[in-house]
Amino acid sequence: MSTLSTFPTSDSAASTGATPAVTTPTITRLNQGSPGWILLKLSDKTAARPMAPPAFVLLALAYSLTSAYDPSPLQDFCVAINDIKTGIFVNGKFCKDPKLATPDDFFFKGLNIPGNTNNLVGSNVTTVNVEQIPGLNTLGISMVRIDYAPNGGQNAPHTHPRATEILFVQEGTLYVGFVTSNQNNNTFFSKILHPGDVFVFPIGLIHFQVNIGKTDAVAFAALGSQNPGVITIANTVFGSNPPINPDVLARAFQLDVKVVKDLQKKF
Q1: 227 burial type by CB count under 10 A (0-12 exposed, 13-18 middle, 19+ buried)
Q2: What residue spans carry the region label Disordered (predicted)?
């Protein structure tokens, strides 16, 4: 395992971002406020007589905006098909008859068992999502246990395309962080976490955790999807199947093509 000399050793050394995060505009409901808001915005003449047809259109549009939406995806993609006989997947899973549900449909046993961290990255993730607990279907939540080997065991940089993650440290000392989008100048936020500390990783952003302590570390995390998905950056970029053209990666990462090919062999 490589040395940890480059990692911060105290909270004061952890970056909280060189610039403040740009506030994301909040889309509010068109008809938010008092029921008479739209009427008050009409002219006196309009308010004094029955509402003109354009006003009805405005009201209809307002209510359609507040109620119409697309369901969030629960897998990488869901290709539309007209022939239901050959359809296999739905956005989520089929539901069992509630009368046939049992307590075991809402139960999982084993998060007390440490995961095997004897691997190249020195960590192990025990997943509890809809595959392990069928009762999570449509509930929009899942969780994981993460075990980290001492002196650098890491949950390598990755993203969850469908979920925000909130992490709780039970044992050990973790160096954690995430990077914002290009729009927010790829600002890096990081923190040193100790037992009892909690940290949030916003949906879709690249993040990681590293055990900077000399003993095992354990963390638990809740994620805002029954199937949050995971994209490990190194594996995805250098280990795709089929491989990405090395020339593309060489230019993107400003590396020699030979270096890229060597990296691809490792994944």
Answers
A1: buried
A2: 1-26
